[in-house]
Design brief:
This protein is mainly alpha-helical. The protein has a single domain (21-110), classed as 434 Repressor (Amino-terminal Domain). The protein is built from six helices and no strands. Helix 3 crosses helix 4 (75-82). It is elongated, with a radius of gyration of 21 Å. The model has no long low-confidence stretch (mean pLDDT 87).
């Protein structure tokens, strides 16, 4: 992915790059459409997190129960993560990333 840096002058919008915006479609978008799209985006993000959690556990070759015991998280929490009902945050999210990138080191550190 290419990163483009743009300097914006808040007084003049002339420095902004021209985008591909369908103004008619944008004007026709209602608040309800925005709310529905936001809900759909959030549901998709939850499913992505669920797939990631499941993939990490399966790569380790652990059942949900074994995984929950190894990382000291309740079985119910693991199930909720994998079903997309909840998502890991903070330290749990960081731990999953470490388990994904360096599983042996993470598991040995956990004891």
């Amino acid at each position: 992915m290419k990163t483009v840096h743009v300097k914006i002058d808040p007084v003049s919008l002339a420095g902004l790059p021209k985008g591909r915006v369908d103004k008619a479609r944008l004007d026709a978008t209602s608040e309800r459409d925005i709310i529905l799209q936001t809900a759909a985006d959030n549901a998709e993000a939850m499913q992505d997190t669920a797939k990631f959690t499941r993939r990490v556990r399966m790569r380790l070759g652990l059942s949900q129960l074994e995984f929950s015991q190894r990382i000291d998280v309740s079985l119910e929490t693991i199930r909720n993560w994998e079903q997309g009902k909840r998502r890991p945050t903070g330290a749990a999210k960081a731990l999953l990333k470490v388990l994904d990138k360096a599983p042996e080191a993470a598991l040995s550190a956990l004891g």
